Amino acid sequence: MDNALSGKEAGAFFEFLDEQGVRTVGDMQVLGNAAFDSLAARVPPRWAEAFLTLSVLRDLDTKMLLSNALMAFPRIEAPVRLPGFLNTVGDLLNLTASAFMQLQVAPFVMNACSLIRARYGTDETFSIIDLKKEQPNTFFSNATRMIQSFCRTHAHCSWRKHDPSRPVVTSVLTFVDVNKCHCHLNGDNPENTHEEHIDAPIPADIEEMGTPSGSWCQCMRRGVIAVNYELSTPSGSRCSEQNAMGKLASLGVPTWGVREVFVHGRAAKEPNPLFPCGVCENMLRRVTKDVLAHYGGDVTLYMFDATTPRKIVFLTIPEISNRDGANFKKFVAEDLRSR
């Protein structure tokens, strides 16, 4: 820094940073990628070299001890308590999104770890299913057919303030017979043979949907379907996900029997892909926690690219935090809706 600026210029440079709210190394570390790029664009050219030198503080070698890297962030105090498998920055970056969301660390440590992962773009990839490549009567074809048929015939506008223009959201929750499922994320789990026996029989009129390829659970899926309603606001409204969960609860299906959630929207302005609201997200996280406890697996969220679907994007419930990310919005615009 001394070589890049004279004493007078250095004072002006740091005064500029102070005006931008960047007063400490910690302030520099907590800037997201977009905020950092925006700040860099505002730095006058004569200070470009100095800013580049300062920005090196954000570069974290993957072999660097994670505890040392975290100490550069505000509100992190020594000693930093981390799980035994998290030794380096590289270990943090190699975690799956699901494993990361399950870390048992202090809140500010979790926040700093999240910023580090976002900086390296670890969660920028999203998985797509191309419905054109799906054969008839496969799991995803059946789920799509079920939703499209249902929302056209079972979504009377009287349940949405008698207004045909109100958005219709349809959700399918899939489930398995927990008395027969002994699947486990890390292979067959013999402990699951001692699970609580569920006495409630599965009604015969709930059709079999098939099994999604690549899932940690390969048991036959069945599904319940529901739409949203808005009799009054705010207390008289219920999301389709909550109504579907109510159906499952009424069938006697335990929370750990849930496997997938499909969400589809229909409105004047294209609403898809459609994430669950914050309340539904919280409920689904609790369901996922039970699935994890019993089987070690996650519940997966599937969203459609458009009202008339061509593609499905999916991610696990613990990854729902991606909803507000610029990366996801870019993915929707450039990949999901591209033909």
TrEMBL record:
Q: Which InterPro entries match?
A: Cytidine_deaminase-like, Deaminase_LmjF365940
Instruction: Name any one GO molecular function.
Output: catalytic activity
Name the UniProt record assigns to this protein: A distinct subfamily of CDD/CDA-like deaminases protein
What lineage is this protein's organism placed in? Eukaryota, Discoba, Euglenozoa, Kinetoplastea, Metakinetoplastina
